[in-house]
Write a structure and sequence with these properties.
The chain is α/β, with parallel strands linked by helices and about 450 residues long. The chain is about 45% helix and about 15% strand.
């Protein structure tokens, strides 16, 4: 097989022309879907050397095929609130690519959910799932329903209505949803109960993120946050750094953020700040995880309540200012595009050494360029936050075998998967002429497995 050095300049130019042509076609076809286009561009920008070295991907028009979902489902979700009024939300499920396995990806319940958000998440999921080494394809879904401020009864009635329609399109060997923003153990439980009632059988593998009491995997709740820290631990180690003694800022205060904070603290870091959609807290003594877990996971309170119990901490309205707090390591674990170019420059000026993306696409393309140009160690989302879906795939395996693995075994498998993702991404970056660039490396490593499967399976 020829090396990258053997590729002719004319082949590189032909590949670049193909990438530009396909991206323009995607842009014209999806003109108002900014998040989806951002995700496509970030992948496509990495692939020119791959396409130059593998012209069979151009021959089979892999880019145009991979950027178009196999299926996009939109549906009405009517439900009755506590006042007896009928409310209507919109549901989505994108089944993006099944070349290497059944569709796999979370459900997000948040007012911002629309077709563009769903497609960007589903597109990212293709490559993230490929990186895990597990046999799972890419999908995503959700609704513009907001569970905040809703009673348990309202959430239950909404999720039951949502599943009544979604159940037509999912199954253990077809499409396996999980949780995402706004969809935790409560919502997964209601969804699973409704699916079971409709189908009349116990198909444990149809959803992941379930309670361990009815088929869920231990460590699933912690997996994305733990996985992000495991990935960054490898990156730091290769560059002579460590979490030990480092100051860490984490955005968000959901599962990803809380368990990234927990694992970073276990490794000796001082985690001084986190946020929610209303604002952020800064505690120079280190955030009390016990208080945070109780407020967010048990009592479902806003983060502002933290300072009532820890008056030495500061609460600041507005979450974006969190990136002005000096830190050694930044872990954006909240939502897409939360770090823009301005925030990235502030982090750099304040001495950040590493950024690990625990959320999906939390940095804009301009922010990523700031980190790259300033030699900041950067763990991109599709690699660094793959821990959640990795343990979801392990949950599917346990469900298929009618087994439940102990927490230590699942955690060890997760750790190994994240190390392998890091190494595979570094190897791909080196092989294709961008040593140390994990954005490029993760994109290429994730793409190759899916592209080869698509070529082998013909036009599907």
């Amino acid at each position: 097989m020829p090396t990258l050095e053997d590729v002719k300049q004319s082949d590189l130019q032909a590949a670049a022309d193909y990438v530009n042509k396909v991206y323009k076609a995607v842009e014209q076809r999806n003109p108002h879907e900014a998040e989806f286009l951002q995700a496509v561009k970030e992948i496509f920008d990495s692939l020119t050397p791959v396409l130059a070295k593998h012209p069979e991907y151009i021959k089979h028009n892999i880019l145009e095929r991979i950027a178009e979902p196999e299926r996009m489902i939109t549906f009405r979700v009517p439900w009755v609130d506590d006042q007896g009024c009928v409310q209507v939300n919109r549901g989505f499920r994108v089944q993006f690519n099944s070349a290497i396995g059944p569709y796999k990806g979370g459900l997000r319940f948040h007012p911002s959910v629309n077709a563009s958000i769903t497609k960007f998440l589903g597109f990212e999921q293709i490559f993230k799932n490929s990186l895990t080494g597990q046999p799972i394809g890419g999908g995503k879904g959700g609704s513009d329903f907001d569970p905040k401020g809703k009673s348990d009864g309202e959430v239950m009635r909404f999720t039951q209505s949502f599943m009544t329609e979604l159940c037509k399109y999912i199954g253990p060997d077809q499409d396996v949803p999980a949780g995402d923003i706004g969809v935790g153990a409560r919502e997964i439980g209601y969804l699973f109960g409704q699916y079971k009632k409709i189908k009349g059988g116990y198909e444990a593998g149809v959803l992941t993120g379930k309670s361990p009491g009815f088929g869920g995997s231990l460590i699933r709740t912690e997996a994305t946050g733990y996985g992000t820290v495991y990935f960054m631990q490898e990156l730091l180690k290769d560059n002579g750094l460590t979490f030990e003694g480092s100051t860490v800022v984490v955005s968000g205060s959901g599962n990803v953020a809380i368990y990234a904070m927990e694992k970073a603290a276990e490794l000796g870091a001082s985690v001084v700040a986190c946020s929610d959609s209303n604002g952020y807290i800064y505690d120079e003594n280190g955030i009390s995880l016990g208080t945070l877990k109780r407020l967010k996971e048990v009592e479902r309170h806003r983060l502002s309540e933290y300072v009532k119990e820890h008056p030495q901490a500061q609460y600041v309205e507005g979450g974006s200012g969190i990136w002005s707090i000096p830190c050694d390591i930044a872990l954006p674990c909240a939502t897409q595009n939360e770090i823009d170019e301005t925030a990235a420059n502030i982090l750099v000026r304040n001495g950040v050494k590493a950024v690990g993306e625990g959320a999906n696409m939390p940095s804009t393309l301009e922010a990523i360029e700031v980190f790259r140009s300033n030699q900041i160690l950067f763990g991109p989302a599709k690699a660094a936050n793959a821990g959640g879906v990795s343990v979801s795939a392990l949950e599917m395996a346990q469900n298929s075998a009618r087994l439940s693995w102990p927490a230590e075994e699942v955690d060890a498998k997760l750790h190994d998967i994240m190390i392998n993702i890091y190494r595979d991404s570094m190897t791909a970056a080196e092989k294709y002429g961008q040593p140390g660039d994990l954005v490029t490396g993760a994109n290429i490593a994730g793409f190759l497995k899916v592209a080869d499967a698509m070529v082998s399976q013909g036009v599907i």
